[in-house]
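Input/output pair, single chain:
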Amino acid sequence: MNDETINEMIIKCPACAKEGVAKSIMKEIEIPHFGKVMETTIQCPACGFKHSDIIALEQNDPAKYVLEINKNTLSVRIVRSQSATVMIPEIGVKVEPGPKSEGYITNVEGVLTRFESAVKKALNLFEDEESQRNGKKTLNEILELKKGNGTATLIILDPFGQSNVVSESVEILDIPEEELSELKTGFSHIEDN
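Output:
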């Protein structure tokens, strides 16, 4: 049984700025194979704004998770922290954390669906024929993986070790120092001179 702490507040909506209408729910939960996290949700009935996030409360050593995507691993549970980079090198897709990056819990198929949505959005922006062709090729490769056709490599690089791939098939590696220093974390910071 999970031990959880729930805090609810009525707040000013960050989207429409109406006072006292948005509900903020913060729930501390223990996730098996992962640790303690804070799940946050903000909902505004006035404008329909909704924002959810998972924030890891424990910091671990940096880790690189490597899993082969195939028809047998589509249901493998994925926990992606807000500071992790997710990529599938064979098809050239990569998501790096930014200031609005969110953590999430899904499975391999869910990660593919997120990449699918991003590629579809990008296709609407591409104007030249070559970019359209490359985007459609990438989209087709993602769709084939979702159907269980073919294989590729899912890599999650987490500088704070807060992500997880819940599978006996995952390879968990250290991140070399030079690669670690190049990783984006999604957090702004001031460099010392």
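Helices lie at 108-125, 129-146, 177-182. Residues 63-182 form a domain with the Jelly Rolls fold (CATH 2.60.120.1040).
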